[in-house]
Amino acid sequence: MKASDLFLIILKVFGIYLIKDIVIAIPVVLYNIVVLGDGSFGVTLFTLLFSLLSLAAYSGICYLLLFKSGWIVTKLKLTNELSEEPLAVNLHRSSVYTIAIIVAGIVVLAFSVPQLIRNIYLWSQFMDQRRSYLGTEYFDYEKLLTPFVEVVIGLLFLGNQRLIVNFIESRRRQVNKVVS
User: DSSP per residue over 24-55, as a string?
Assistant: First the structure.
């Protein structure tokens, strides 16, 4: 494994981590499409365009990090000052990807599980207060749904790392076949 391979792997890890943000941005776009006719059209349209721009930015960066990481390494000249001697790491590329996906899944879980627990607690407090006052207020379920989806994504990363690695490797092999 050379230094350029290590940079490629690190960039792909960041790309894998951004998948979570893409999945979280999709419901925001869908919600803005649904409420497009409600309220002020200009504000809603601006919010929709902003959320679409955010989703496109996340998707573009994730695509570049996962599938065009060699281009990023070349453009940023990350390996110009480094020697081309192989690093003394005897791991196969797919093993490193598997480790990276597991680490990304653990990081997602580490950040989202405490948020989920906190929001479940806030929801239970809200429901108790609502019962005692017989109010008609509604709970903002987005605060509960977002960490739940993050936990599911983290668990999917941990449970399906082989499938994700095979997908990344198949894309790399396809690019290598086209170049050859």
Answer: HHHHHHHHHHHGGGSS-HHHHHHHHHHHHHHH
Decide: 23 and 153 in contact? Cβ < 8 Å.
yes
CA–CA dist 38, 83 (Å, integer) = 60
Global pTM? 0.57
Q: What is the mean pLDDT of residues 42-64?
A: 86
- Category of 85 on φ-ψ map: left (φ > 0), alpha (ψ -120 to 50) or beta: beta
- Angle at the Cα of 169 from the Cα atoms of 52 and 150, rounded to 5 degrees: 45
Portion of the chain with pLDDT greater than 70, in percent: 87
Cα 127 to the center of its chain, rounded Å: 31
